[in-house]
Amino acid sequence: MTMREYFMRRLHRLVPVLIEQVEGMPPVDPDQVTAFAREFLQAGTPAFRLLFYAMMLALQALCLLTRGRSVYSLPPEDGDAFVRYLYSSRIAALGAIPTVLGIPIFMAHYNRDDVQVRLGFDVHGMRGEAAAREVKR
Predict the structure, then answer these.
(1) What torsion do the CA atoms of 16, 11, 102, 119 make, to the nearest 10 degrees?
(2) Taking the CA atoms of the chain, what radius of gyration do you get in angstroms?
């Protein structure tokens, strides 16, 4: 297994930890999120890719140190509590961990048409309006 495959498997398992399922919303699709993140990381800067992978390792290490378990083995409510703990920490670097990891994850999930419609966006109307705009420079 290559390092890329290792991190993509870990990312796939991390998606439900970072995106909490909300009643009435479409379910999270870890396959779709992972595919988007793979492309996002490949097309992005190498510096962000390294930061992203470092944050995945840091998340795992901190969870093992503070919870005694892998972040991937936590029940959903414990995973959510752990992420909230990081976000609310007085140590800003801890809050940066789920923030950096969430960038491609949240972009992938909340960019889905079915999610945007449930959030109240007129996806088709906005696309039609964007297509009709003439860009002038």
Answers:
(1) -40
(2) 17
Would you tell me how many other CB atoms lie within 10 Å of the CB of residue 102? 17
Beta strands in 34-84 (DSSP E): none
Phi (first) and psi of residue 63, to 5 degrees: -65, -45
Tens digit of each residue's pLDDT (9 = 90 or more) over 63-112: 999 999 999 888 888 988 999 999 999 999 999 999 999 999 999 999 99
3-state helix, strand, coil in the chain (%, to 5): 75, 0, 25
125's enclosing H/E stretch is helix 123-132
Compute the half-sphere exposure of residue 29: CA atoms within 13 Å on the CB side of its CA.
16
**Residue 114 identity:** D
> Which residues does 16 contact at the CB level (< 8 Å), separation at least 6?
28, 30, 76, 79
